Amino acid sequence: MTAEAATAPPQVSRQLIRYTLIGGSGVALDLVVFLLLHNLAGMDEQLANGISTTLGIANNFVLNAKFTFERRDRLFVRFLRFYAVGLTGIAFTDLLFLAFTDGLGIDANLVKAGSLPLVLALQFVLNRKWSFA
């Protein structure tokens, strides 16, 4: 077994832990902004989701580039890729809003909160393999 193969699983584990912790800060920012825009300002849930998720994506890119994947090269290209991956989260969450909020009448706040772990897992894999490869 090569040294690289022996160290790969611990590196992935460390990256996942850091990504999750950083993701937590982005999720907190995303959720607070969503709740303020949707509940206090009365903004449509899909527009509020787009704005709040964009802020969370920007927060997470900066922190992940520095601390998780430790990549500081080609930042503009990496950000575009990271944002594209983030858009998959917006699209996925919007589909859940359509199905569960609009279709079944489930509260948008619950749908938003329930979507977060699924989006986090999907985006970690995509960002690790594409944005920061």
UniProtKB/TrEMBL annotation:
PANTHER family: PROPHAGE BACTOPRENOL-LINKED GLUCOSE TRANSLOCASE HOMOLOG. This is GtrA family protein. Pfam families: GtrA_DPMS_TM (PF04138). InterPro entries: GtrA_CellWall_Glycosyl (IPR051401), GtrA_DPMS_TM (IPR007267). It is a multi-pass membrane protein. The keyword Transmembrane helix applies. It comes from the Bacteria. Keywords: Membrane, Transmembrane, Transmembrane helix.
